[in-house]
Amino acid sequence: MGLLTILKKMKHKEREMRLLMLGLDNAGKTTILKKFNGEDVSTISPTLGFNIKTLEHRGFKLNIWDVGGQKSLRSYWRNYFESTDGLVWVVDSADRLRLEDCRQELSSLLLEERLAGATLLVFANKQDLPGALSKDGIREALALDSIKTHHWCIIGCSAVTGENLLPGVDWLLDDIGARIFTAD
Amino acid sequence: MIMEAPVASDGVTSTGYRETVKIPDRLLRRDQDRLEEAVRRKEAKENLSVSEEKIDHFSSAFNTEKTVIEELLSVCSEADRDQLSRVLEEVTSRIQQLQKFLNDSTVFLTQYELRQAQASLQKLQCGLEEKRDEFIPKKKFAFRSRNIGANMSKVIKPIRDQPASSDSGSSDGNLGVVSVVYAEQCGFSNAHSQVLTKEADEIQQRDVLLSHLTNCKVRLLGSPSTLHIKHVRDSEILCGPVSSSVFVDQCTGCTLAVPCQQLRTHNTTDTQVYLHVTSRAIIEDCTGVGFAPFTWSYDGIDADFKLAGLDFERNNWNQVDDFNWLAAGTPSPNWTVIPALERKCTWE
Ligand SMILES: Nc1nc2c(ncn2[C@@H]2O[C@H](COP(=O)(O)OP(=O)(O)OP(=O)(O)O)[C@@H](O)[C@H]2O)c(=O)[nH]1
Ligand SMILES: [Mg+2]
């Protein structure tokens, strides 16, 4: 079996979406993924490579990619850009020290040609912590209002309590769905 | 576990047989379990051989394609402009396909194979970009500069106007946003040869920062949500249970004792960590980091373990992942277990 045959077999199915979840290390990406899937979140380790989960939601098949955010892994992020429908950018809202770092990483992602067509959902995570910056604080710190190249939305959430995870993903699906599935 | 197979799970496995049959539930369930176990074993066996086969297949397909791309890249020359752009296009699309092939194969690859494949792809991508730069430099430059320019004017300007903050930890003169934030940061900064203590109510469920300390003794008698330790030298830091992560960055010659859910250690040397960690510790760009089990205690620490949601029974202090050392089989030279006889056992 040659490479092309394999590729054909892996052809994109209908109503299937690919979501790429990125953010600095410790933002809570893996915790969000597991919480969304109803798994235990108390034993999660820092991600050494990535996790993939395929789940059904509202009749869509979601392929969610959660890639580790440690510095040494960030150069690999670009290996995952291909055919991404939705980019989920996760922010640790209590980590005020690294907001600038966070803004820079996000803004360079948005320059990537291969992410040009993707919808952006920003999760201002860890809202359950008393020291967390509000969703509007994060919006300002990341200069989201200057983004003109992507559809975007910011949602304050907590991966630990599960608050607002679903509304976030629903918004993302609606936005992507409106773009790719109504066309045909 | 690093990689998980895709599972189409919402946790809704249905067990509809119960309503219709009169055999006692308990028996039925046992029978069902037995059947399921048999199926599971059979599947596990099949999966194993299938996945070995798949890996072989993957490696040979991947390497063949990689060689083709390398050859294509090596024949690029400026002689024939038309041909050059065709070749570069061809290479671009082949790299994309190969990446997709890798992405779709990740479910059955091991972490090691994956990292290697990723590294190869990255090399190919760099090779391609080099060729592009070499032969078609102008176009790329124009594209980049326009985009960055647009962003800069909006974002960086207002930030530059702000006074620089005292923490010089992260990159270039940035940190405008961060100064908004400093007023509320809880912790200790810029101290030398001092004993520094915080009681529970000052740090409970807070994001706590210790930075630029030298030769200090720090006691945090409570349960922060996150603890950052940055630019600390020759100091001893003892802290109560941290509900999420402890960050250690640019520290040297320190002794730390802390329970937490995750430990993330960066750019740190010659430091001893007395650790209780319920998931795992990682190190990145570190050398000479020693680990031993957490032994410090204070009045009320049990309650703080509960508050932090940490399992007292579960301590993975000696399971450390080194992000700079992914060779399968050989242990990282960058960290060690502190020999039992050399461990500190009394704390003042
Ligand atoms: N309080 C609180 N803690 C959270 C929340 N989400 C994640 N955490 C904690 O933050 C830490 C990091 O979470 P992870 O999910 O491992 O972060 P990550 O983004 O996957 O990190 P990398 O894998 O290194 O990229 C863990 O200790 C989590 O328990 C949240 O909403 N609230
Ligand atoms: Mg993770």
Keywords:
A: 184 residues, alpha/beta, 23% strand, globular, B: alpha/beta, Pectate Lyase C-like, 2 domains, 13 strands, 42% helix, extended, binds guanosine-5'-triphosphate, binds magnesium ion
Topology (elements, then pairings):
The complex is a heterodimer of chains A (184) and B (348).
Chain A: H1 3-9, E1 16-22, H2 29-36, E2 50-57, E3 60-67, H3 71-74, E4 86-92, H4 99-109, E5 119-125, H5 135-141, E6 152-156, H6 165-180
Parallel strand pairs in A: 1-3, 1-4, 4-5, 5-6
Antiparallel strand pairs in A: 2-3
Chain B: H1 17-20, H2 25-74, H3 81-105, H4 111-135, H5 137-160, H6 176-182, E1 186-192, E2 195-199, H7 200-203, E3 207-214, E4 217-221, E5 226-233, E6 236-239, E7 242-249, E8 255-266, E9 269-277, E10 281-284, E11 287-293, H8 301-308, E12 320-322, E13 335-337
Parallel strand pairs in B: 1-3, 2-4, 3-5, 4-6, 5-7, 6-8, 7-8, 8-9, 8-10, 9-11, 10-12, 11-13
The complex binds guanosine-5'-triphosphate and magnesium ion.
What does this structure look like?
Chain A: Keywords: GTP-binding, Lipoprotein, Magnesium, Metal-binding, Myristate, Nucleotide-binding. The complex is a heterodimer of chains A (184) and B (348). By secondary structure, chain A is α/β, with parallel strands linked by helices. Chain A contains six helices and six strands, in the order H-E-H-E-E-H-E-H-E-H-E-H. A six-stranded mixed beta sheet of chain A has the order 2-3-1-4-5-6, sandwiched between helices. Chain A is globular, with a radius of gyration of 16 Å. The model of chain A is unreliable at 5-13 (pLDDT under 50). Chain B is an alpha/beta fold. Chain B has two domains: 26-135, Up-down Bundle (Methane Monooxygenase Hydroxylase, Chain G, domain 1); 186-342, Pectate Lyase C-like (3 Solenoid). In chain B, strands 1, 2, 3, 4, 5, 6, 7, 8, 9, 10, 11, 12 and 13 form a 13-stranded parallel beta sheet that branches. Chain B is extended and about 75 Å long. At the A-B interface, helix 1, strand 2, helix 3, helix 4 and helix 5 of A face helix 2, helix 3, helix 4, helix 5 and helix 6 of B. The complex binds guanosine-5'-triphosphate and magnesium ion.
